[in-house]
Amino acid sequence: MTTALKPEIHETPPTRHRRPAFDKKSLPARYIGQMLYFMGAALIAGAVVHYPIDPSLYTIICVIGALVFLLGTVVNEFVLADERPALGQAVSLVAFSLLLSFGVGLVGGGIQHFEQFPERSAWMTPVGLLMSYVAFVAKDSKGRWRHLVSPFAAVVAVIAALAWLGMTALAGTIGSDGHGHDHGSTSEAPAKQDPPAEPVPAKQDQVPAEQEDPAKAPAEPADDGHTSHSH
Asked: What pLDDT, on the 0 to 100 scale, is given for residue 46?
């Protein structure tokens, strides 16, 4: 009897799907991209507001903030994006991203430091709001120029106008109160210090005058005694 030989079955191991070395949709990647955005805007906000204090220092901080924000734009729009933009679109994207960063910085810095720099913050906030909206419309892939004359654009413009009027009025109040308290404290202080200062030298002048009278008293009897002795 012949026995049938069974064909050899080669078992192939199951293929394992290797994960890509860098996952664009992972949480760390998205965190890095957003962190660069917000960090750059925060640096620009502080530098724009505090520029009058130390221009050279805060100019450097502003440039660093702009570079950080641009790096975030590259990471989010080029590295993490599914489709990379063309060259012309990439140039406009970087330019309007930089404009957006300054707009966000003006709004954030103007609100945070309004008490320290009221007059400067009064125009920074509305200008930054308008700048940020225009830059976002130009930067966004779905943004069209018709969005600049839309009802929402009118709402943004009204908010910017109200912010300018309100912050300007508050800035005048803060400035008048600050000057009023300073002027009152400086004018009243010398008035209280002058009266006690005047009698002090007067008493000092009288003391030696009273001490000189006893010296003159024995001198007169000496003269009288000498004349009486001569007679």
From this structure: 85
